[in-house]
Amino acid sequence: MHQRRIADLTRLKSEGGGFGLSDDAATVIAERAKPARAVSERDRQQALYEIRSARWNTCMQLRGAVSDWLLRGGVPGGCGLEPIEDAPVSELLRKGERIGDGVERYRHRLRELAADLHRVNSSPWPSSMLKAEAKALVEQWAEAAKPDFDSMVEHQSPLSFQTQSLSSLVRGEKPALAFTETVDACGLLCWLFPQELQAKINAGLDEVSDDKSALDQQQREQMEAQISSDMLAIERAEVALIWAAEAQNNEILDFRSTTSPQSLLGFRLVSAPRTNPSGTSPQHVIDIAGVQ
Fold this sequence. Notes:
Radius of gyration: 37 Å
Oligomer: single chain
Strand content: 5-15%
Strand order of the largest sheet: 1-4
Number of domains: 3
Helix content: 55-70%
Number of strands: 4
């Protein structure tokens, strides 16, 4: 359309009703600029659509997470919710730091804590614990597989070894299950050679173990609890800055789609009132973030 209009403007009057304008005429120049402006406007609207769609999707994810947390068992049983007061913005920001920069700093710290949590979960287990578990299992199998000597002595029963049931799928026109019993060979080995078997297991564990980096169950739980507590405290600071930016109308900051409902709503968990024999009902505050 624009090209046809430009052709009409620059065509000579003698060539079929043109306007006979030169290429440097203001009207021609303005007409030539219209396609570029149309493309620019289209790109601008497309960019806005993508940004707003992403924000809308994030809002819907957060809305669903909050609803599930409140209505579908996200709050632990026996716990209630208590609102918390956010720290002043001046305490959450470094000297001369903008709110957006502060939010990004807290998010960077959250990524570091997430990496720490991954390292804890990926840490090897102590070989001593695994050896003890393997020894207990070998002893259990050996005890279950040994012959019934009492029956032999008391009832003159023939010597027999413990059996185990096996099942298999018989393929054919009509597949069927087949069952049989056989001597518990693994248990019998554990009964005959417990020390040799445990020595081989210990040697194999020693070969692949990394006890310097290993964590037992108690250490994992303590470290995970501390990291989770730190993450919740950092996330609360991040959310507080985003709300402050909105209140001050100085910049638009989006929440992360993975923001926890507890931080977003500004609540902490409290234990339900419990009546003791004296008749009083104390309430103990459980602040997961460790922030009073």
